[in-house]
Amino acid sequence: MRKFLLMCCILLGITAVSRAQGGGQRMTPEDRAKNLQTQLKLTDDQTAKVLAIYKTQATKRDSIRTASNGDRDAMRAAMMPLMQASNAQIKALLTPEQAAAYQKMQEENRARMQQGGGGGGGGN
Hints:
This is Spy/CpxP family protein refolding chaperone. It is a single chain. 80% of the residues lie in helices and 0% in strands. The model is unreliable at 119-124 (pLDDT under 50). Helix 3 runs antiparallel to helix 4. It has helices at residues 2-22, 29-40, 44-68, 72-93, 96-114. By secondary structure, the protein is mostly helical. The chain is globular, with a radius of gyration of 14 Å. It starts with a helix and ends in a 10-residue tail after the last helix. The protein has a domain at 46-92. The chain contains 5 helices and no strands.
């Protein structure tokens, strides 16, 4: 149950950040890494590693999207482990303080998604 909730948090968090920052458009791996660098005060080395993780994730996500042939349930099921793995890799790069802030960001994004699908894009 705990793993399932974590996967849901990851999926919702990334979706919410992408929608809030991109106006409904998908953010590039570079944009996502830059966003984390700003919010978590990442070093240049951390940012480069996060960017590599996001680029790998984007390639795999595109493959999943193509393979699912429009089946949203199959796509969602295949993406959850991918997002969980990417999230774990990113957390491993962070300091304890950054990891706590990252976790808080994910929880806030999940809560925002549960309250109405992203809250309309707000102040960012």
